[in-house]
Design a protein that fits this description.
Residues 46-86 form the HNH domain. GO terms for molecular function: endonuclease activity; nucleic acid binding; zinc ion binding. Residues 84-111 are annotated as: Disordered. The strands form two sheets. The chain has a two-stranded antiparallel ribbon with strand order 1-2. Strands 3-4 form a two-stranded antiparallel ribbon. It has helices at 16-26, 77-105; strands at 34-36, 43-45, 52-55, 72-75. The protein is an alpha+beta fold. The protein contains two helices and four strands. The protein has one domain.
Length: 111
């Protein structure tokens, strides 16, 4: 879903810009995504320049987002896009599963 047709921005708190700026400053404008080195298995943060703030755990079922600092982190555009794509895929799978379950229980045997 594109932002232009989304109502998600209506769920932002009125002080979001101030919160966003505070998180970017806290994280020194560096991506906090955890990266695993393929050769050594060592984990470290991405560290690329970040200009986006994301919720580590997204809200479910239209609930308001948890804007506490512990649930927010700075991400570079690449990792933010990756995380959003993964969450979108998970939501599509869950929606399909829910539709299939509703269809199954709408059969005459369950009425």
């Amino acid at each position: 879903m594109a932002w232009s047709s989304s109502n998600r921005d209506a769920r932002f708190n009125p002080g979001w810009e101030r919160t966003r700026k505070r998180i970017l400053e806290r994280d020194h404008h560096r991506c906090q995504w955890i990266v695993t080195d393929w050769h050594t298995g060592a984990k470290h943060i991405c560290g690329y320049p970040a200009n986006e703030v994301d919720h580590k755990v997204r809200a479910k079922n239209g609930e308001p987002d948890d804007d506490s600092p512990s649930n927010l982190w700075a991400l570079c555009p690449y990792h933010h896009k990756q995380k959003t794509a993964r969450e979108s895929g998970e939501a599509r799978v869950e929606k399909r599963r829910s539709r299939e379950e509703a269809e199954w229980y709408s059969r005459p045997a369950f009425r």
